[in-house]
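Lab manual, section 2.4: Encoding a predicted structure.

Procedure: take the sequence of the chain (238 residues), apply the prediction step described in section 2.3, and record the output as structure tokens. A sample record is shown.
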Amino acid sequence: MSLTLEQQQQIERQIAAHHHQKYEVDIELAPGETLKQFAVHRNVFRPELTTSKSLAQFIASRKQLVYQKNVIDMGSGSCIQGVVMACCGASAIYFSDISSAAVENSLDNVRKFALSEKSTVVQGNLFESVKGEADLIVFNHPFFPDEPIEGEPVSAAMLDPGVLIHRFLEEAKTYCRGSIIMPFLHLAGEVNDPGVQAPRHGLSIIDKFTCEVDNGLQRGRFSIYELKYPGNGSSSVS
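Recorded output:
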């Protein structure tokens, strides 16, 4: 599968910005609400420079989505989404990622933000290490339709040829008793767009938030979808 020139240039910019060592950064979620000294490890997707920050701000602005809920941060990476859900009152959080670097990063931030009592961090391919059901699953999946780049571990967070999203949507049926939240940068096309692919697995789009992101590495039209399987109840977004 070939990327367009614009998509290829976008991936090249992202890769160039991800040759980083471990660092800490303050991430503003809302006026007066900041994650202080959030740790980002080597070979892990940088949340403060990407649409991961927009997703975290979305969750922080809709605390009713996660309050007193059991949640899964799938493909947790630095674990920013799970940490934000914990700060918004989630009862229990599963952090799952296939990358050992991401698992270590998640463990680091779970300790840093004193979340160990209600957190479980596992390494696995999607749900293979997850036990039990969740009220909410958040998956910040790869947007761009191509194979990950050999020798660039973080590219697996950016690139997938359209296989992972379908595996996730099928496997999630077993684990989701509420909503799924998935973001998308529309520059990437339709192959990994939840708005296009989720209905093919029987999910309904209960809510869609769309904005223009004009800063950071990933710019352009950006959407966040709330998805539900049949029989999973009404929307939790207001």
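Check your result against the sample. The domain at 5-228 is CATH 3.40.50.150 (Rossmann fold).
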